[in-house]
Amino acid sequence: MIDFKKAMRSLADWERFRTKGGPGLFGTSGLDSPLKEMHSAGSNPGNLRMFAYVPASLADSPALVVVLHGCTQTAAGYNHGAGWSTLADRYGFALLMPEQQRSNNPNGCFNWFLPEHTQRDRGEAASIRQMVETMVREKGIDPRRVFITGLSAGGAMTSVMLACYPEVFAGGAIIAGLPYGAATNVQQAFESMFQCPSRSGREWGGLVRGATHRDGPWPRISVWHGSADKTVIPSNAREILKQWTDVHGLQIAPSAQLRVDGYPRQVWLSDAGEELIEAYTIPQMPHGTPLATGKADFECGAAGPFLLDVGISSSFHIAKFFGLTTAGVRSVSPTREHAAPAQARLPINIPAHSPQPRILHGEVLDDAPMDHARHRPASSRIDIGAVITKALEAAGLMRGK
After folding, report:
1. In which domain, by residue range, is 77 found?
2. What's 111-148 look like in SS3?
3. Residue 277 forms beta bridges with which residues?
4. In 3-state terms, what secondary structure has residue 66?
5. Known catalytic residues?
6. pTM for the full predicted model
7. Contact by Cβ (8 Å): 97, 69
8. I need a labelling partner for 274 at 20 to 30 A (CA). Which of 13, 41, 83, 303 fits?
9. Percent helix, strand and coil across the chain, each to the nearest 5
10. Is position 399 within any domain?
11. Can you give the CATH number for the domain in which 73 is found?
12. What is the number of other CB atoms lying within 10 angstroms of the CB of residue 76?
């Protein structure tokens, strides 16, 4: 059984630790953030703050990425760590970064588990929707190119937004999050985070369909989770995949399994060969957003608590999955020499009458372990203790040797 009082104390202890450790990575003080606060034209029933970033040069038919921070974080801090404004500069898309207020939630979490904030046109969900409308209207965003992503509580709130407003978002990425409808109160929230009760795909999918009483079309989905996550246990990723494969009418087994930057990537394809869902599991990684820091096109961000430099940039690969960048992209056929070996690749679950998918966009398939700096296999690359120590040092919460 879960000790909910102990769980709540642990969150409070982390918050005290964070605030006593100096300005830190997640505070707005000390950060020269490019984000600018805006005011939504809507009623803002969820009482959220609105931050945005529009690069000097926008692409034609510019896209918008909505980015939702995790508990104890701020919009500026998460942007600094995950590197989204760096990607926005490179590829010409705009950012919307809503921020929770402590008056709404003492730990700065989006209230993804309260019905008054997780239903269409209510609370925080409605506030985020109004902010999107403001960005589309005032910044010339192409309404067909609006995407959303988030970490932890922000990942769970991403699930809320994708379910409640599927007509608004072309795609979404859930990092260390939970499926839509996993909880309707605090006790259920902790139960879902720490125990993750299993449901059928049909039940999960029904919650999404019931949020709007529509039958599609549905956003494309990217799911990221660390296999050593003890804050939001990894089986939540499995339940998210059950939810969205059911919504998209896909089998639970992935169409193909690949390797990207040394990590496993699963892909679910439509009958026409379009990538509808992808999933990354990062071996040995605890709770947080996977990063590859540096100056290369496939790198961005800065390590910190819950922002872990493990050699793969989730932000970059999510942007690529959304179709926002062509940097470093090359299309390969799963049947060519770069395909994963038969024993490592899961079966293609495409109906016999459908055309064989010819292209998996933007990912490298290989059949041998990678041993150079960028592509070393996960088993030899991650030193979790070093990753966490580096993150705490970067945040000013631990002194280096």
Report:
1. 4-394
2. CCCCHHHCCCCCHHHHHHHHHHHHHHHHHCCCCCCEEE
3. 221, 268
4. strand
5. 152
6. 0.80
7. yes
8. 83
9. 30, 15, 55
10. no
11. 3.40.50.1820
12. 25
